[in-house]
Design brief:
Largest sheet: 3 strands, mixed
CATH architecture of the largest domain: 3-Layer(aba) Sandwich
Structural class: alpha+beta
Strand content: 15-25%
CATH class of the largest domain: Alpha Beta
Number of strands: 3
Distance between the termini: 23 Å
Shape: elongated
Strand order of the largest sheet: 1-2-3
Number of domains: 2
CATH superfamily of the largest domain: YefM-like domain
């Protein structure tokens, strides 16, 4: 890892694109809230980049079988919370 960047949550929200570029370049971004670490942004490692693709495929399958009923929407929400 090349380095670590610390940033407050408000500033991170406003500079997300820039933070993603830093992470893509190998840096770690630590996001703080009220002076305490709230999150870390790191690049994908060991095939983790496929996790997003898997989530998208799962969401498409659920959507295709449910036709926008309440149960299907709930499943999508819960699936999104797991990733």
């Amino acid at each position: 890892m090349k380095g670590r960047v610390f940033m407050g949550a408000f500033e991170a929200k406003n500079r997300l694109s820039e933070l993603l570029n830093l992470v893509a370049g190998g840096q770690e971004v630590v996001i703080t809230r009220r002076g305490k670490v709230a999150a870390r942004l790191v690049g994908p490692e060991n095939g983790d980049e496929r996790a997003g693709e898997n989530w998208v495929e799962q969401a498409r399958r659920i959507r295709a079988k449910t036709k926008q009923d309440r149960k299907g929407i709930r499943e999508l929400i819960e699936l999104g919370r797991r990733f």
